[in-house]
Amino acid sequence: MPSTHRHVVVRNIQRAPTDVMTRLAAAGVATVHEAAGRTGLLGPTIQARQTGHTIAGSAVTVASHPGDNLMIHAAVEMCQPGDVLVVTTTSESSDGMFGDLLASSLMARGVVGLVIDAGVRDIADLRAMGFPVWSKAVHAQGTVKASPGSVNVPVVAAGAAIRPGDVVVADDDGVVVVSRELAATVADAAEGRLANEANKREALAAGTLGVDLYDLRPLLADLGVVYVDDPVEDKP
Amino acid sequence: MPSTHRHVVVRNIQRAPTDVMTRLAAAGVATVHEAAGRTGLLGPTIQARQTGHTIAGSAVTVASHPGDNLMIHAAVEMCQPGDVLVVTTTSESSDGMFGDLLASSLMARGVVGLVIDAGVRDIADLRAMGFPVWSKAVHAQGTVKASPGSVNVPVVAAGAAIRPGDVVVADDDGVVVVSRELAATVADAAEGRLANEANKREALAAGTLGVDLYDLRPLLADLGVVYVDDPVEDKP
Amino acid sequence: MPSTHRHVVVRNIQRAPTDVMTRLAAAGVATVHEAAGRTGLLGPTIQARQTGHTIAGSAVTVASHPGDNLMIHAAVEMCQPGDVLVVTTTSESSDGMFGDLLASSLMARGVVGLVIDAGVRDIADLRAMGFPVWSKAVHAQGTVKASPGSVNVPVVAAGAAIRPGDVVVADDDGVVVVSRELAATVADAAEGRLANEANKREALAAGTLGVDLYDLRPLLADLGVVYVDDPVEDKP
Amino acid sequence: MPSTHRHVVVRNIQRAPTDVMTRLAAAGVATVHEAAGRTGLLGPTIQARQTGHTIAGSAVTVASHPGDNLMIHAAVEMCQPGDVLVVTTTSESSDGMFGDLLASSLMARGVVGLVIDAGVRDIADLRAMGFPVWSKAVHAQGTVKASPGSVNVPVVAAGAAIRPGDVVVADDDGVVVVSRELAATVADAAEGRLANEANKREALAAGTLGVDLYDLRPLLADLGVVYVDDPVEDKP
Amino acid sequence: MPSTHRHVVVRNIQRAPTDVMTRLAAAGVATVHEAAGRTGLLGPTIQARQTGHTIAGSAVTVASHPGDNLMIHAAVEMCQPGDVLVVTTTSESSDGMFGDLLASSLMARGVVGLVIDAGVRDIADLRAMGFPVWSKAVHAQGTVKASPGSVNVPVVAAGAAIRPGDVVVADDDGVVVVSRELAATVADAAEGRLANEANKREALAAGTLGVDLYDLRPLLADLGVVYVDDPVEDKP
Amino acid sequence: MPSTHRHVVVRNIQRAPTDVMTRLAAAGVATVHEAAGRTGLLGPTIQARQTGHTIAGSAVTVASHPGDNLMIHAAVEMCQPGDVLVVTTTSESSDGMFGDLLASSLMARGVVGLVIDAGVRDIADLRAMGFPVWSKAVHAQGTVKASPGSVNVPVVAAGAAIRPGDVVVADDDGVVVVSRELAATVADAAEGRLANEANKREALAAGTLGVDLYDLRPLLADLGVVYVDDPVEDKP
Description:
Radius of gyration of chain A: 21 Å
Strand content of chain A: 25-35%
Distance between the termini of chain A: 61 Å
Oligomer: homohexamer
Shape of chain A: elongated
Order of helices and strands of chain A: EHHEEHEEHEHEEEEEEHHHE
Largest interface: A-B, 52 and 45 residues
Number of strands of chain A: 13
């Protein structure tokens, strides 16, 4: 059997400094995504299943067989306070692989949230417990504990590659992942953007137009966009 | 014309005892689904359109032509207090076949909720009235009253087969159907699970790991899952 | 280069009278859609991203390259108090083309809401600001300002054709568009329906059946729908 | 453990007479669906993965865990010449649960085709072998043999309920299921339709209009459809 | 009842000259779409259901109730040789509204193809007859003849607005619509593009790079794209 | 500006030995996927757009802005004989970013095929040229050349992570990627599986059951699967 077959649970992963994660959480997903050069964003199929929660933490990753939550249980032991559990399946699934029991277990370990490219259940309980989840579905479909998988290996969730220890930021806009190595740089850039955006917001709220604020009129002209007074008699 | 063509409204259906339905509602969808051997769950395309409502009731079923709500009106007369109206279409539709007027009519008859494999409209009114709905869509698209269909015949909704008089349980996790004949057995099993889960939840919240609580370490070893200390140098 | 290539920003569009729009907002999407002969409804892919907001306003339309919000900035200048910005892309996109900065700008101009056949971001901020949006997605994906498009040309959003100056009505049920020329006629019809519906709702809430209220029994008989007492021994 | 948990393989199922299935195959899916009162049609998510094959046979049904083909192997033994294997999963899956090895096994037993509400692989081999499949996906994703399921129990595939021994008819238009008890009646009706359609086809090909052939003009008038000479000045 | 409710069949529509349509067919969908300024393309949900057919013709449009083909029959009478029938439904449907009988009728009138934002059936027959169709689905689902609609009114199909008499061009790449008024201009532009493309194809086939042929190197530099020799040590 | 913003074209990538790629192509996608421990498979959204082509080659990767094919042109220059071009977009797109002109250019450089997580056009020409493509869509939608991206950086396509120089194998079953470092090991394992499968196929074709060949009867018993003679009186 070639080594490609191995299912592993990796015990030791490197994590970004806590303060960097705090700064990224403060910036929020949209700003972090911009600050990271518009990379690392998970697709819109994964949605916040509550409102008003913003988290950032180190990814503990899980690659599970679809319809099987055995490896989620194995992953819990690898979690530390401040981590975010990131669950993927080896093929598409919307099964409810995660519910209030696993959330109790993760909260006991200080995990700050779950990102899962599959379904969750007991959603009313999860909301009541204050444990935030970002998932592809809410579905009560039960799972088995029968097939092997891996913990803390690189995974892909909703089109984004995530390595163990990468920083996951999630809020009402969705989820973005920042590589551990770039996390501090991105936090710097994000804070720069926040300051810059505050000025812009003030100007725009005062009535300054974006076409002026961003100096877009020359670009529009260059691109051949023509201003006309009267309606164009064209069909849609 | 063979008998296969008949469109019927069936007047008399058998219903499960009220107390069994009350017990199933108390258990909730995820637990009932487990207690029923992980059968009867409707797919995640049908979602709760409000939060915090749990219902259980006897299914009064409707098979409608798409874009036509004639048979829903015919079904109202067949409803009794405690029933759940279950509406399906003979082919895919997201039309808003149900709104506040039909809800008024159902509430007048004591119906406790609607499950529809199509759309609803007047959703703000439905929420204000406190009439819970589980639907595939919210869509204002109007319908006609022109084509025949049937009431209280077996139907399929979101991948689950439902017979008239089956018990429908619905909450924020979705919808599950339990056969009338098995409803009491499933209620027993569900209550057993609830007691069992309370113990587990307590243990997990206290820090016991699922791999220990469920004795999963031998299984992981049998399946060839290996614990390693250092990261695996593998691409995602 | 044929004229078909021209990208234009049209400055002057005709708008429906404000009072007509107020009347349409009061009627709501489902009733307006009915009053308009069940035309003009946007598909259910575009959803309200908040609850409890009903708006009606004149459409200022945008046709953008996907992943590019340059033309939204150009459109802001064309907006007047009471307008609704309607954004479409020349091919499918769920990118977050609109966020809190553009919302600040639109609010400064008195725009009452956004309908976008793409994504929005900063959704928590948009909700906090009270600026209502109807969109296909919530997605933080950033966009560029690089490609030309048009403002105030006819567009198609979620399957509905919209011309600049058409009246857009939006609430928790979705979005409907009414041609400017027919807006007053539709408002009249909508108000007629509201009065009529109030009577029906009262009758239905009092227990009158829809099959009697709408006189559907003869139709059911004509269509060959048969009432039977006992269950039909048929498979689903 | 309540009886609801049992996983079973049922050995003896009743089948429709061979000649009835031959007649249904000759009629084809669209005609059989009509003859059966427009019931029993699987949704368009399940498609023919080759062209030009029409089959009809008795359903041997499988309910599998997603991502697991153990029960397909158990089902092979239950198949007889002329059967159609019908595979479903307990939750959504597009995994390639079936390939050329299983096809070899089924062909050895005289099975005439596969209908699967999941994926197939080795599609080039399946086509070369002349073993027709109707599936939701073509996907190479491998599966395990780890979880229990059932054979020859009632299932739902693509929205249609199928019992063991029901007649499955499939061609380039898709798949329809006819209950064993009604198969002969439906075959009679289908043949009546075929004769009738031949006359209609001849008339239509000769230029007779459907509005005349079906006498639709009075209906159009009754429904208020008005013929006008000039274009309607309406926006889309 | 306001005029908005009227269902009409429009008898007289204007058509583009035959030779213009012949020229557009010769150019094919991708080139016509480019020549029309990248407008008028139907979305990829509508696909060719055969290979190797290219058609262009005048749109005779149908707006049908979903699951109802009454208005298709009414539309046949309005068709002339060289026309393309364009069928839409007032809400989403994949029903098989069109089969071999209607195709026989259309072929008798010289109609060159069908574009339908819904399903077709009898697909094997349609291919054998040589009648090309572009549809959203192949589905045997039967329809009724019960609800009114309109013929030769503006419609929206797969996101594109189509007016009666517009030129519809369709091939293996999909479907594009060109307004009748611009058809000749677009045909001119398309032929210019074809000549231009032949030169480009020759150059590219001979090994000239697109970055040189289109002079893209300065643009890449302006946009900040940097050429580097060694791999970037970045995660996906 | 942090380094995260850089758009790069990487000139030198490492490739797997040609003979290894030949061996992987001979094994085909399903077998390679198994041999690689069921990893690296692209999702079923990416499909072969022709039949009967099997390729294997080194990935030259592209990360493009949606609706923009500038970077594909930049990538052509980086291609060598035997390469496979792999195109992704930074957010979802089905635009026809690739057609016959680019195919001419790639064929001139000896590229053996295209894998694109977006659309292609000129599909009839591509088939006629014998240039195989695997894509998410066929769509004539045109693109611009306006926004920067990268070439030969790690990308994610249809849920699978792909690095420059990884081996891409594609056939009628879809697409799988194998890391360059493991390619030879996987080729060995694939050939072992092929030999093994030939034996199994022979046994199965001769009537041996999979439950015996794989010794599954004890597992079925362990899992509690019960063989019964008579139908289970259960609803679907």
